[in-house]
Amino acid sequence: MNGIKVIIFDDNDSLRDSVAMLLGESGDFTLVGGYADCLDVRNNIRNTKPDVVIMDIDMPGINGIEAVRVIRNNFPTVQVLMLTVFDDDEKVFAAIKAGAGGYILKNAEPQNLLHAISEVYNGGAPMTPGIAKKVLHQFHDMLPEEKKDYHLSMREKEVLGLLVEGYSYKMIAGKLNITYDTVRAHMKKIYEKLHVASMTEAVAKAINQKLFPTK
Amino acid sequence: MNGIKVIIFDDNDSLRDSVAMLLGESGDFTLVGGYADCLDVRNNIRNTKPDVVIMDIDMPGINGIEAVRVIRNNFPTVQVLMLTVFDDDEKVFAAIKAGAGGYILKNAEPQNLLHAISEVYNGGAPMTPGIAKKVLHQFHDMLPEEKKDYHLSMREKEVLGLLVEGYSYKMIAGKLNITYDTVRAHMKKIYEKLHVASMTEAVAKAINQKLFPTK
DNA sequence: GTATCCATTACCAAACTTGGTAGTATCCCT
DNA sequence: AGGGATACTACCAAGTTTGGTAATGGATAC
User: Fold this and answer.
1) Do A133 and B139 touch (CB under 8 A)?
2) pTM above threshold 0.85
C-alpha cells in the first residue's frame, strides 16, 4: 500500500469499480475510499486522509460542487479533481470557484485520468482540452483592459484613493495633514481630469477603471 | 506536403532548426516559415497562410506579445501558440490577453509540443501544467464572489443603481417621478442596510459587491 | 385582523460639496 | 530665466446631503 491516496465520490457504482481497478493496476495510487454521496464528506476525509479527492457533480443529497467547497474549507491541503460528464460553463466555473484543482470529463482516456491525478497532486491544474479552452477564453475576457491614464499626480491619486474608501473631504484633510481647502483644490483638478462633477461619479469611475485595488 | 501548416517566430536559430526537424519527422505538420523577428509579421503570414503560429516572446524589434495582438487582429482564424522560457504571471497573462490560444514552456518534451500544436489547431488550449495552474488560480480569484444580499427592495435597488451612475438625489427624484424627500427616505434605508453613511461609500460598496452591471 | 414591510411625502437644522477666483512656493525643463 | 506642472492655502456663495422625527396608504404574512 503506497503511492498517492485517493478517494472517490460518485453515485455510479460501476464507475467507482472501474476507477478502483484502474488505480489498483497502476501501482502509483491507492484507493482508500469510495462513496456514492457526499452526505458525510467531512468524516469520510477525516477517516481516510486522502491526498486527492475525485468528485462527481450530480449526486443525490449534496451536490459535488458544494462538497468541494466544504473540502477546501476544512482540508486545505487536499486536492480535488472533478470527474464529471458536465462541460457547461456554469458548472465548470462554479467548480473552480469552489476550489477544484482540476476538471476532467468522464469521456477522457483512463490513462489521462491517472495522469490528471498525479498532476493535481503535484500542484498542477489538469483539464481536458475543451475545458482548458473554456477557462482560457473566459479568462481572456476577464483580464483588465488597458487602463486609461488620466495623468493624475501622486497627490491626486492619494486623495482619490481615500475618497474611494469612503473618506470625506474633511477626513482626507486630516489624514494627509493638509487643509480642507487644499483637498478641495485637488478634488477640482481630479474632477477636471476624470471629466466628472461629483464624488459619486469620481468613485464609480475610479473603481470601474480599476485605478485602485479596492477589493 | 500536407497536414497542419505552421510557422515559427523565434530569434534562436538552432531552436527554429530543431522545431523544423521535429515537425518534418512527424508527418502531420508542415513548417511553411521560420523568422527571427516579427518586423514583418503581417506579410509573413499573408504569404505563408499558416494554420498555427508558434511565437517566442523575447525577440529583437517587436516583442512576441505585441505580435500576437497584431496577428489576432488581422488574421482571426490563425491560432497562436506561445513557446517561451518565461513563466512569470505578467507575461503569461499578457499573452493570453493578446489572444494566444496556448502557452507552452520551452523545457517541455518535444512530443508535447507536437501535441500542443494539434490541440491549439483543434480549438483547444494547451498549457504546460505550471501555466495551467497559474491560469486556474488567477481565474479562481477573479470569479465573482458569492454576492451578499442586503435585502434591498426593488425601489431601493433602483435608486442605488442611479446613484452609482452618478445621479444626484434631485436627478433621481426627477427620473423616478417621486419627490426629493422620497428619494431621501430610500437613501436612508439603503445606508442602513448597506451599513454605510455617505454616497461614496454606498457607490463603492455597490460596485465592489457587483450589485450592478456597471461596466 | 393585526403586525410588518414597502413606498410615499414632509419639515428642520447641521454639515458637506461644488465652482469660482486668487495667491504663494517648489521643482523640472529648455 | 521663464514656462509649466504640482502642492498648498484662502474665501464666498449656492447647492447638496445627512440624520432626526413623523405620518399615510397599500400589500403581504401569520
Assistant:
1) no
2) no
